[in-house]
Amino acid sequence: MPVETERKYLVASMDWRAEVTRSSRLRQGYLSTDLDRIVRVRLVDDETAFLTIKGRRRGDSRPEFEYQIPAEDAVQMLDHLCQRPLIEKERYFLDRSPGVWTVDVFSGDNDGLLLAEVEFDTGATPPTPPGWAGTDVTEDDRYTNSSLQESPFRSW
Amino acid sequence: MPVETERKYLVASMDWRAEVTRSSRLRQGYLSTDLDRIVRVRLVDDETAFLTIKGRRRGDSRPEFEYQIPAEDAVQMLDHLCQRPLIEKERYFLDRSPGVWTVDVFSGDNDGLLLAEVEFDTGATPPTPPGWAGTDVTEDDRYTNSSLQESPFRSW
Q1: DSSP code of B144?
Q2: Backbone φ/ψ region at A43: left (φ over 0), alpha (ψ -120 to 50), beta
Q3: Is the omega angle on the peptide bond into residue B127 within 30 degrees of 0, that is, cis?
Q4: How many CB atoms lie under 10 A from the CB of residue A119?
Q5: Rounded to an integer, what distance in angstroms lies between the CA atom of residue B44 and that of residue B3?
Q6: Compositional bias (Polar residues) at which positions (chains A, B) (predicted)?
Q7: Which of B3, B31, B54 to mutate to probe the A interface, most A CBs <10 Å?
Q8: H runs (alpha helix) in chain B
Q9: In the structure, how many helices (H) and strands (E) does chain B have?
Q10: Which of residues 111-150 of B touch A (CB under 8 A)?
């Protein structure tokens, strides 16, 4: 089964900004927030869209299936079918290796929340977190985007 | 928004068998059974697969988005991610018009249930049901496949 492996950290300082190479605006919603079978609709920069199915997390890995779909379908699903509220965030890609490092800056109901993530090969040793990374929240399900949709950061 | 329009009937006699042109074995499961945002994985004859999202029904129509996915992905989602039990049925296609007529013969936990469906153009007059069709159950949500998964026919 295809698997996504990542670790997730709070952000302790803004020093990550010096490492940014590019960013994308993500608008996403959920058709299921059941942690055994998450179904996410994601629109990237208003022009590319994906439907993603995620199974339950075991440690830092979870099954993941992702399909590109027409952006206009995603807009309609986000506007009419997905649970409220939607998740909106800017994703910054960093010049850092090993692994693929990003920082998500949330807006809307999750305004004020920043999360760093590193995706890496399943079975590999997790990359050492940078100095600006804070608490490791990989196994804290409150920080999954599906949970943030149900219980937004600003309501904590 | 793409829309599916259909009416659904119980089956009052087996006379539909004379109209069968072909059949397919369907194995399907649900990632969401929320009637506002159903997410279905369907495997057809163990070789073709679809991921389908359906919005809330209004009368005989509902929004529907459907994407073909690799059969091996569907097998893994059915085996590991979908809610239990799965729905298994044989779908018989009929030589009858107007509309596209099918009869589903359920097995497993829904053994004993037969449902006839006709899909037709949105806004058109529903085709006249044949003599072998029984009660119109279009607006009885117990007969949606997502409900039959949660509350199978044999448990009624």
Answers
A1: S
A2: beta
A3: no
A4: 15
A5: 22
A6: 144-156
A7: B31
A8: 71-76, 145-150
A9: 2, 9
A10: none
Query: Which residues of B fall within a CB distance of 8 Å from A34?
Result: 31-32
Residue of chain A minimizing CA distance to B82:
A37
Phi, psi of B69 (to 5 degrees): -130, 160
Q: Which two tokens stand for residue A13?
A: 């300082």
Helix (H) or strand (E) holding A150: helix A145-150
ipTM for the complex shown: 0.93
Please check whether residue A108 touches B, CB under 8 A: no
This prediction has a pTM of 0.94
CATH superfamily of the A3-155 domain: Hypothetical Protein Pfu-838710-001 (2.40.320.10)
Q: How many CB atoms within 10 Å of residue A48?
A: 14
B146: which DSSP letter? H
| Residue closest to B96 by CA, chosen among B129, B50, B62 | B129
Q: Which two tokens stand for residue B150?
A: 């949660």
Query: Cβ(B50)–Cβ(B30) under 8 Å?
Result: no
pLDDT tens track, chain B, 156 positions: 899 999 999 999 999 999 999 999 999 999 999 999 999 999 999 999 999 999 999 999 999 999 999 999 999 999 999 999 999 999 999 999 999 999 999 999 999 999 999 999 999 999 999 999 999 999 999 999 989 988 999 999
Task: Give DSSP secondary structure letters for A45-99.
Answer: TTTEEEEEEEE--BTTEEEEEEEEE-HHHHHHIIIIISPSSPEEEEEEEES-TTT
Residue B105 parent element (H or E): strand B100-106
